[in-house]
DNA sequence: TATTGTTATACTCTATAACTATA
DNA sequence: TATAGTTATAGAGTATAACAATA
């Protein structure tokens, strides 16, 4: 941008991606997400499976579509996700006596154990991510990001990328 | 996670995605990126085109592959990007007298005007993003994120998502 | 023989909409 | 007629590797 702009003096925030809040968030969000993806890989699941497992664990017996609505995942995609978790023996579909169309989702004992492992991995992932910050800085950062998240009306535990299309870089 | 974990008391950072640094970054990075994508859409370009235009503007006359190396974009993908920008009349490929294999990249006058517009859009995008923060908070946040970016060895102006695969959510 | 740019192929992921079985 | 779940199809985006021209 140095010699591109006619003569306007750059201000904080528009003097290039180095100090752009949006670009920093985009870069760091991608890196954080990619590493989390790699962290989960040895367990044979992806971040989206983790989010799904969490919601099922939180309220077992729900139908696929009600879970999908909470996570903002369209019905046709829930199927594949549940399929994958069922193949790995982490989740099971049971019949719903009161509505034979619906499939009630439950964690298997193995699913519970894996979810415990995932939480431990999440802790180390989380610690590694901010290792260059002091505890106070970390608190500050999280507080500020939560303010932004509130501004953007983000729902805790729901990733906006699950709703729609792939990542626009 | 409430009733899933055996009995361990949740600590800050692992008591669910609400206060997880990684998840917040991932959510906000996605939202920021998606809105930036939508902001550029009326101009007929995407964020990746903007990054490419910037690098070309910064040093005109470079070959496609040298630009690609700076942005960490593989050769086979540069072609399509340059194609698209050339179709829109923002960029042009010129012959390189000293190496007839290479194609030297230059902005067109129109490309320069569009790039100026994009910078203006970037400013308003940037302002909107942190509108719930005070100027001091904004400075703090950017400083902390830059610290993280340094920790992750992120290169200014280079988006890690351009290098490889789509967004893992 | 190596390199620049290009293209062809296969692969993955997704949305859309059709379909079934129940309600 | 509407709804839960499923599946088939087509489309977009990508990596990979082959290719032509030039070095």
Topology, pairings included?
The structure is a homodimer of 169-residue chains.
Chain A: H1 21-40, H2 47-58, H3 64-71, H4 75-87, E1 91-95, E2 103-107, H5 109-129, H6 135-151, H7 160-163
Antiparallel strand pairs in A: 1-2
The structure holds a DNA duplex (23 and 23 nucleotides).
The SSE order of chain A reads: HHHHEEHHH
Pair of chains with the largest interface and how many residues each contributes = A-B, 78 and 78 residues
Q: What oligomeric arrangement do these chains adopt?
A: homodimer
Number of helices of chain A: 7
**Radius of gyration computed on alpha carbons of chain A:** 20 Å
Order of strands across the widest beta sheet of chain A?
Answer: 1-2
Strand-pairing-aware structural class of chain A:
mainly alpha
Shape of chain A: elongated
Main β sheet profile of chain A: 2 strands, antiparallel
> Helical amount among residues of chain A, as a percent range?
55-70%
Q: Residue-averaged pLDDT of chain A, rounded? A: 88
Short account of what is shown:
Chain A is mainly alpha-helical. Chain A is built from seven helices and two strands. Chain A has a two-stranded antiparallel sheet with strand order 1-2.
Describe this structure as you would to a colleague.
The structure is a homodimer of 169-residue chains. The first copy, chain A, is mainly alpha-helical. Chain A has 7 helices and 2 strands, in the order H-H-H-H-E-E-H-H-H. A two-stranded antiparallel sheet of chain A has the order 1-2. In chain A, strand 1 (91-95) and strand 2 (103-107) form a beta hairpin. In chain A, helix 3 crosses helix 4 (75-87). The longest helix of chain A is centred in the C-terminal third of the chain and has 21 residues, at 109-129. Chain A is elongated. The two termini of chain A are 19 Å apart. The relative contact order of chain A is 0.12. The interface between A and B is large, with 78 and 78 residues. The structure holds a DNA duplex (23 and 23 nucleotides).
């Amino acid at each position: 941008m140095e010699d591109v702009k006619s003569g306007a003096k750059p201000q904080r925030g528009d003097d290039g991606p180095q100090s752009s809040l949006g670009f920093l968030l985009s870069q760091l969000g991608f890196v954080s997400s990619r590493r989390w993806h790699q962290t989960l890989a040895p367990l044979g699941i992806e971040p989206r499976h983790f989010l799904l497992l969490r919601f099922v664990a939180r309220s077992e017996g729900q139908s696929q579509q009600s879970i999908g609505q909470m996570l903002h995942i369209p019905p046709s995609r829930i199927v594949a996700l549940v399929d994958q978790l069922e193949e790995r023996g982490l989740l099971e579909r049971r019949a719903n006596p009161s509505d034979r169309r619906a499939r009630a989702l439950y964690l298997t004992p193995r699913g519970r154990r894996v979810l415990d492992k995932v939480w431990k991995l999440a802790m180390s992932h989380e610690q590694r991510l901010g290792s260059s910050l002091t505890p106070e800085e970390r608190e500050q950062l999280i507080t500020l990001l939560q303010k932004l998240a509130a501004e953007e009306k983000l729902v805790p535990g729901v990733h906006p990328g699950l709703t729609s299309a792939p990542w626009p870089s």
